[in-house]
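Changelog-adjacent note: as of this version, every example in the card shows the full chain rather than a window. The one below runs 350 residues end to end.
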Amino acid sequence: MVENSWDQFTDFCRLGSEQVQRELREIDLLIQQTASEVDRFVQTNARAVARVRQMESTFDTVPRDDIRKTYDTLIENQQRLFTMRGQLEKLQSDQRNLTRIAELYNKVLGFAPPEVAMDQPGSQDDGKDNTQAMVISIIEAQEQERLRLSRQMHDGPAQSLTNLVLQAEICERLFDRDPERARHELGELKKSVVNAFKTVKVFIFDLRPMMLDDLGLVPTMRRYVEGITNEGFTGLTLKVTGKDRRLAPHKEITIFRVIQALIHIAREQDQATNIVTHLNIEDDEVRMTMEDNGVGFEIDETLTSPDAVRLNLPTLRERIEMLNGTIRFASAPGKGLRVSLRLPVEVANP
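Full-length structure tokens:
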């Protein structure tokens, strides 16, 4: 009787798991479609902003109706962008909830007695389900990173290029009418080009630092810290001990991306003003510790809440564990965040 009840329960969980997986596939598709719509509205909004700025440079000569229509278009585009971003965030929240439900089903099915599990069709696919859950988590993190980069591209290089076009048009109109002012605008245009170039360099470095392939982990980390300091955040300290040597490329990029993500979390989410990162490279392993003076949070609650996905903590743990390493997080309200990482390494092939 007990065995029969367990059979019914596992059947219920298995059917529920299959339903959740179907819903996850559907919501993945919706997220991709909505993200594309958001990107389209971002571009439309950038063009509307450019039109407003162009109009403002000749404000006195523009008819009132044109002014009103231009501003109405801008407001409408921004409202649509706000709505689409809200829909995207809602879909991503639903995706996180479904992923947690799928993980719960997998954990429950993992408790099935071996004889019951062997009798159930599809029980041999439990490992595949766990792998699929991990893949879904990684895909979600990748999509969130793409969304962040899209917004960063819009607010940084794309906006800078829009401004450059606008300033160039102003200079073109002023050449014959007011040469002195045109000369001044050209000077401002040159400054804008220099700033845009710096922004693009930072963006490219964030996407994929080429010096990581050429020089290795330690020089890249030092350059990354230097860049953050030059941006105005002076509370970041990097200490490097052990052997400054090359590692396997996939481990160098993993360590760099994990530290990069942790520094972002410390600055943006933990609101830290002082971050100390210690990187120790030995013959057989890399050890890293990071401490900050941020506001802190209840780490056990955070790792099992929606904030865990937003903070990217589970994905960082999965990336390290897939390489047979360990990463631990410690935090409490008012006590900042502490992270310790250990990763076995080997010397890269020359």
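Structural remarks: The radius of gyration is 26 Å.
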